[in-house]
Amino acid sequence: MAIVGTLPRGRNTAARDDPHVVSADVRTAGATIDPPGLHVIRRRVDSIAMPTVVVVHGGMDRASSFGRVARSLPDISLIRYDRRGYGLSRDAGVVPIEGHVADLLAIIGGDRVVLFGHSMGGIIALMAAERRPDLVRSVLSYEAPLPWEPWWPKPRGEVAEPPSAADDAERFMRRMVGEGIWNRLPAKTRADRRAEGEALRADLRSLDQGRPVFNAKAVNCPVISAAGSESSRLYLQAAEELAESLPAGESVVAPGASHGVHLSHPVLTAELVLQACARAALV
């Protein structure tokens, strides 16, 4: 398992402003029409050397979480979006994972891109790479879950489901960010996150099929499967085994990082993205 090269960790040294952002409502000739209701941020940079990168966020997340990563990649055309049911795409409805893959492919359009999928977004990116190898040049998958593997923890006995999807979302957030941070969030922010409970449940149900949702052997593009050195052994094992299952997989450890690498280590995350772009140039 490779280690990401030495970089400043947890600090963003890029400019605060991002002058290249193109609104989702601004179109150029031949541009893809994004799926209705989705909040999409397109930043176009004139460069023939670097491919466009599309960021796919995980459960209970949104495009804005990757803002500092975007500012650390000023010379790359970048697309970020809120998946259905989350953030500013909350009113676009809730779909199973196949719907998220369809949205991603629609956003890509006819371009050949690099995909960066975080957590659940990694699974969506790999599914898109399997279905449209002509469009996906390489993938960076960060701590994608593999719940169908026999070693992935399963619920013990009958676990009572929270009384509402909102409670499910709150429980998830408290586990991910900690009780202290959750309690300090503004009331509106907490309410917005609780409103994403149905989208979270749809994500989890999509992976709870007892079998892989993609054929690893059919993902032929280069894939960097990364995990943080400070993450649980579960994610480290998942990243390593995912890489081993792929024809062109490579396992990488992000030093000092855990699951929220894009928030705590945006510059390091940007370096991982650049590595994925470098792999794309080789094919």
Set down the secondary structure blueprint.
Layout: E1 2-3, E2 21-22, E3 40-43, E4 52-56, H1 67-71, E5 78-81, H2 97-108, E6 113-118, H3 120-131, E7 136-142, H4 165-177, H5 179-184, H6 187-194, H7 197-207, E8 223-228, H8 233-245, E9 249-254, H9 261-264, H10 266-280
Parallel strand pairs: 1-9, 4-5, 4-6, 6-7, 7-8, 8-9
Antiparallel strand pairs: 2-3, 3-5
3D structure, described in words:
- This protein is 35% helix and 15% strand.
- By secondary structure, it is an alpha/beta fold.
- The chain has a 9-stranded mixed β-sheet, with helices on both faces.
- Helix 3 links the parallel strand 6 and strand 7.
- Mean pLDDT is 89; it is low at 6-30.
Strand content: 5-15%
Low-confidence parts: 6-30
Mean pLDDT: 89
| Fraction of helical residues | 25-40%
Please count the helical segments: 10
The coarse silhouette is globular
Terminal CA distance? 22 Å
Could you give a short account of the major beta sheet? 9 strands, mixed
- How many domains? The number is 1
Total beta strand runs? 9
What is the CATH architecture assignment?
3-Layer(aba) Sandwich
Any idea what the CATH superfamily is called?
Answer: Alpha/Beta hydrolase fold, catalytic domain
| Radius of gyration based on Cα positions | 18 Å
The CATH class turns out to be Alpha Beta
Helix and strand pattern: EEEEHEHEHEHHHHEHEHH
Q: In the CATH scheme, what's the topology name?
A: Rossmann fold
